[in-house]
Structures are given as C-alpha cells and as structure tokens.
Design a protein that fits this description.
This protein is of the alpha/beta class and about 375 residues long. The chain is about 25% helix and about 20% strand.
Length: about 375
C-alpha cells in the first residue's frame, strides 16, 4: 500500500471526478488519498458530499467514502498530502489555468482533464498511443514555472478519440482532408437523463466550443516540439471540418467520418493498419492500456453504443463501415467511451505514461 503514489482528485465530486475515483479503485500504482472540491463540499466526508449525486452504475468504492473533502482552493494544504493530482475542476477557463499552475508550482504534477491548458504552448496534450514524445516539452514548462518536478499535462477533448486514432493509424496513406460529424453522449456535459430530461428522444445540433476543438486539437497532437521556441508546433495537415451533435445516449461518442488520401489504400490495407496499430502503452503494458487499441468490426450495423462502448474496459476504439465514397475516398464510423478513454481513463493512462517516463515520482 505505502509503495503506491498518493493521488489527489481536484473536482472529485463531479461526474469526471467520480469516474477518476472509480477507475483508480485498486489501481496497482496509484491510491486516492485526498479529494478536493468547492468550499461547499469541503469538510464533509466524500460519501456525504456526493449523497444523491453519484452518477455511475458502479457503486462508490468503500476506500473513499470516509475521506474528508478538502477545499480545492487551499492549494498548499492539498498539495502537501499527495505525490500528484488529477484535475477535473468546474471553474472558468482562466480560474482553471491559474489553479492548475498554482498546484504545479508547489512541485505537484497536475494531470488535467480540463481544456484550459490544451493550447498553452509548453503544456503537452497527449493521447499516449499517439504522441508520448510530447511529454518532453515538460522540461521547457518547468523552466517557465521555475519548478523541479511540478508541471501540467493534459489529455485532449473526448470527441476526437473516435477518429483521431484512426487517422493516425492511416498516416502512411497521407490523409489530407477530413469531414467528421460527432454524435455525442450527454455524459460529455456531465449529465444523466434524470438531470437532463429534455434530452430524452431529442437531438441538439450544437455543443459550445466543441467544433473548434474537434477541428484543431488533432493537429496539435500530430505536431512536433520546436526546441528553439520551447513549445509544441501543431501540424498543418490534414484539414478537418466538423459538426458536433448532442444525442440521447448516456455514454459513447460516435463519429461519421469522410477522408481524402494522397495515396490510394485498399480497404484491406486500411483495416490491417487499424488492427496492427499500437503504441508505447501497449509496449510498456501500462495498467490501463487496452491490449487492442483499435478494433475493426465487419458487421454493417457496428459499432453500436450498447454492444461496443465498453470495448477494452472503455479504453479501446471501435471502428466499422469502412467503404469507398463517391465524393471523398473512404468513409467510416468510429466509437469511443467519452468518460473513460475520452476523459478520466485517458488521463489515468497519461499519468501511467508519465510515471513510466520518470516525470511522476514519490515526493
């Protein structure tokens, strides 16, 4: 027990905070010892603080029920009790930027689910199977912050997980133009149907800020570190245009995607590239890494949320319906679990990678 790294969850009472707590129950490397949230939750046990608001099907882990919730704004006090923190705080973007850097300056690594720092030039935004080398920009961030072990690392938006890994697996065929429409679950807004009855039998063709993230964030993931500028420079291709639609599904973001390639792959080559694609998490056998990162389903009616969203415990990507297109070259449908791979699970995998790379250690 004492060998495990002590973890704090910032914003531990919200839906993503709850998902962190659920995923970290009995984790082989990490142990949740501290939970911090808004002042209104502080001073109560975690069980009391979320009474009637636990949103997951899986029951609350016994190990966290009696942890007394701390005030997330008491940065020094919270940081003194942990080796690193996961951030899922519900604040304005500027407040999140400020508080995450305050934690980093206490020499506490921050692995964030939030979007606030995704475009901070020296903050790595990582899907561990795609761009693990971006963690190397942390050395420049530490120079800026004046820290020895404190930094901020983030994972990208949940909506891109259903197609960015696919396009990465197809890099050798040089995709250069992409049209994507994402059909996004309500848990992406931190809601359940009980809390959002208007979504039952409804579709909303707008999710604030989501289309810009969906078009731009993959390019940052495919970018490179510029050692002279001490920052990550985004890639310029492929061009992506996106629409994001909220649909009456609890968990699982689906994407319908059209792609133009400079090279001319066959369907067999596309499928083989997906099935063979793996990254550093698979090579290192990190605890949360899916053994099969991307699965291809041959049936015409797959992937389906009900059947496929929990593939590889929600950490895998499911793809189907690869077929030639009359306007673009090829099209496909992708599916990912938005609060596991797309949120808390993706951040946990980032933390495992950071530990394996030596960035997160015991204080």
């Amino acid at each position: 027990m004492s060998e495990k790294l002590k973890v704090g969850i910032l914003g531990g009472t919200g839906m993503v905070g709850q998902r962190f707590i659920s995923l970290l129950d009995n984790h082989p490397w990490f142990e949740v010892t501290t939970i911090a949230a808004s002042p209104r939750s502080a001073g109560r046990t975690y069980e009391e603080a979320v009474r009637g608001r636990w949103k997951l099907d899986k029951p609350m882990p016994e190990a966290v029920k009696n942890i007394v919730v701390m005030d997330v704004n008491q940065v020094e006090e919270v940081a003194s009790k942990v080796d690193f923190v996961f951030s899922a705080v519900d604040m304005t973007k500027e407040e999140i930027k400020k508080i995450e850097e305050e934690y980093a300056k206490t020499e506490t690594p921050v692995v964030s689910n939030n979007s606030a720092h995704r475009w901070t030039p020296d903050v790595p935004m990582v899907v561990p199977e795609i761009n693990p080398e971006h963690m190397e920009v942390i050395k420049y961030q530490k120079e800026r912050l004046g820290t020895k072990r404190g930094f901020v690392a983030v994972k990208p938006n949940c909506s891109i997980q259903s197609y960015a890994p696919v396009l990465t697996a197809w890099k050798e065929f040089e995709p250069y133009e992409v049209v994507a429409t994402t059909y996004q679950a309500i848990s992406g807004a931190g809601k359940t149907f009980k809390e959002w009855p208007e979504m039952i039998e409804n579709i909303i063709p707008y999710i604030g800020g989501e289309e810009e993230k969906s078009e731009k964030e993959p390019l940052r993931i495919w970018g490179h570190i510029d050692d002279q500028k001490k920052q990550i420079v985004p890639a310029e291709s492929p061009k992506i245009t996106c629409q994001c639609i909220r649909v009456p599904v609890l968990n699982g973001h689906t994407a319908a995607v059209f792609v133009k390639f400079k090279k001319n792959p066959t369907k067999e080559q596309l499928v083989e590239a997906l099935r063979n694609y793996k990254g550093v998490p698979q090579e290192l056998e990190l605890p949360s890494a899916p053994k099969q990162f991307i699965q291809y389903l041959e049936e015409d009616n797959r992937p389906q949320v009900h059947m496929d969203v929990n593939f590889e415990n929600g950490m895998g990507i499911s793809v189907g319906r690869i077929r030639e297109d009359s306007v673009y070259d090829w099209k496909f449908v992708g599916l990912s679990h938005n609060t596991v791979r797309g949120a808390a699970g993706g951040a946990v995998l980032c933390a495992e990678l950071l530990k394996a790379q030596g960035y997160i250690t015991k204080k």
